[in-house]
# Entry
Amino acid sequence: VPERDSFWRALSKQQQNEVYEERHLKFISSLGKGNFGRVDLCRYDPLGDNTGELVAVKQLQSNKQSNMADFQREIQTISSLHCDYIVKYRGICYSAGRLSMRLVMEFLPFGSLISYMEKNKLLITTRRMLLFSSQICKGMEYLQNLHYVHRDLAARNILVSSDTLVKIADFGLTKIVPLNKDYYRVTQSGESPIFWYAPESLSEYKFSHKSDVWSFGVLLHELFSYCELSRNPKRLSLHRIGCDVQGAMMAVHLFNALREDWRLPAPPMCPPKVFSLMMQCWSFNSEDRPSFSYLQDLIESSLQEERD
Ligand SMILES: Cc1cnc(Nc2cc(F)c(C3CCN(C)CC3)c(F)c2)nc1Nc1ccc(F)c(N2CCCS2(=O)=O)c1
# Structure
């Protein structure tokens, strides 16, 4: 199949070595599915004695050409990232005749941050949330240094590796910012998570490291709200702009609310320093928003205070 072969040839030597043979990939359970496709828990067991490693395997739902191109870009992206705070790429599994391709990644046993926070909300301290925030910040700093804009930074896309380690996942919407510009303009809107979007993303489809900082502020709000559904950004925003607003008008009403200086309310018991950090991320003008490295320092100093 030509486009599969051209993709195969495009892979680096190193990437071609990380090929997983389908016959050794044993399905265990489905981890999740959505418009992006499906992710399954599998054991890669070439010795056939159940000693193989557990892996998370992502595949496209439909082999639509456009999806395949996006999927190939996602694979190129994630295979080029090597950071403790970003979910690790393991390799690729081609099915017989290479008609479909699957992305093999490390398996993080604790699942998404949302389900983890709901399950452990009574045990999670402010310190722990600041530790997670600092790790996500470091992951975003790494992405920024490679000129990547994530565009979908939200608690649903953060995975929990252990009680003390979280990682950024899902690079389906990640784009590379052209070297001669400091933003990426999107053409197709698709399923847009507008309640995590910066004003310039709502009004001009512009995405940059500074719009990722805005989304990071929304992620902090989710984290310090224990990812509770009753307080999630979509519900709180719809409460402000009116639930009867539909479709593209939602983005217009949300933009107007933000221009009139409405912001998500402080989560209950949220430390004032952390809420002021969120508010800095939500500066209307992108230049007024802090960089991820500055955010890193602010979070570290809050962590110190929590320790003392
Ligand atoms: C790459 C990766 C590595 N490890 C893991 N571990 C993991 C472990 C788990 F116990 C669970 C759950 C926890 C809750 N109970 C009820 C069911 C299993 C789980 F959902 C995930 N998941 C990965 N990917 C993944 C999986 C599933 C996904 F829906 C999405 N996504 C969805 C939105 C964009 S997304 O692509 O991030 C990514």
Remarks:
- The radius of gyration is 20 Å.
